[in-house]
C-alpha cells in the first residue's frame, strides 16, 4: 500500500533534525548529580579553603592559588586544555549519520516504539500513547471515551491477530492487562494509571534494548563509556582538589573543566552505536520520520487516507502529530482525516485526549 522506494529528496530548507528534544531520566540524573557534587565541593573548598591536606595551614589567597604564580598559570592553562579535550570527547560520542532517504511508510514489522528507538536509541513519554493508538489501528484493542478525560482501553484481539503485532507493543499490552479479550485498562490521567503506564514504558524500553542487541542493530560504544568513566574519575579528583586534599584548591579546576566539557557523553543514546545492519534499518525508520516531521516536500502514498491514518501512531511516537496533520493539509488541500478507531475529535491535541489520560507518571 505504501510507496517506499527510498526516493531521495534534498532537504526542504526547514529546520533539520537536531538533538532529540528530551533526555533519558537516568542520564539527566547523572548530570545533575555531577553538577551538584562539583558545586558543593567548589563552595566548600573556596569558602573554607583547606580543611585538611598537605597545605592545610594556608589561609586566604594562598590557600586557593598557592604561593607560586607559575602553579596558578599552569592550572588555568591546563583547564583550557582539559575543557577542550572534554568537548572533543563529547562530540565524538555523538554518532554521525547522513540525511536519510525519504520513506513514505513504516519499516515492515516495526511498531512505533521500535521505530523511535532505532532512530533515537531511546523512547520518550509519547511511546505508550503511540503504541495504544497503533494497537487500536490494528484492531486488537478498543478505545472508549467514557467521560471527559476518562478512557477505557479494552483488549479485543484474537491470539492470531496478536501474533502479527510487534513484540514491544505486546509488552505494553501485557503490563496493562489488555492482551486478552475482555481485559480492560482505565486511563484517566491520575497518578495510579500514570504509574502503571510508566512501568509499562520501562518494560518497553528494556525490551527495545534487548531486541536491538538480539537483532544486531545497536552495540555499546566503547569510546563513550571510557569518556563516562573518565568524567566520573575527574569528578572525584575535582572534589578532592576543591577540598584541598591535593594542594591549593585551584588544582581542582582542570578536572572540573574536563567534566563540564565532557557532559555530552551522558546524553541519551550516546552509549550505543548502529551496526551495519542497524544503519540499514535506521535509514528506513529515519526516512519515515523525515516525512512525518514535514522535512520532505511530499508525502507520497501517505496521502491515501488509510496510509495517513496508519502513520498517525508513529507521528505521536516522534512528537510530530500536529506537523503530520498540517503536512497532509498542505499537500492535499483537505483537513486531516479522522480515524474510526479514535472516539474523540482531539486526536492531534497534545493537551487533551488519550495522550493526556495515558501520560506516564513517575
Automatic annotation (TrEMBL):
Transmembrane segments: 32-52, 64-86, 225-246, 252-272
Lineage: Bacteria, Bacillati, Actinomycetota, Actinomycetes, Mycobacteriales
Keyword terms, alphabetized: Membrane, Transmembrane, Transmembrane helix
Pfam family, one: DUF2207_C
InterPro entries registered for this protein in UniProt: YciQ-like_C
Name of the protein this chain belongs to: Putative membrane protein
Span of domain Predicted membrane protein YciQ-like C-terminal: 103-327
Source species of the chain: Rhodococcus wratislaviensis (Tsukamurella wratislaviensis)
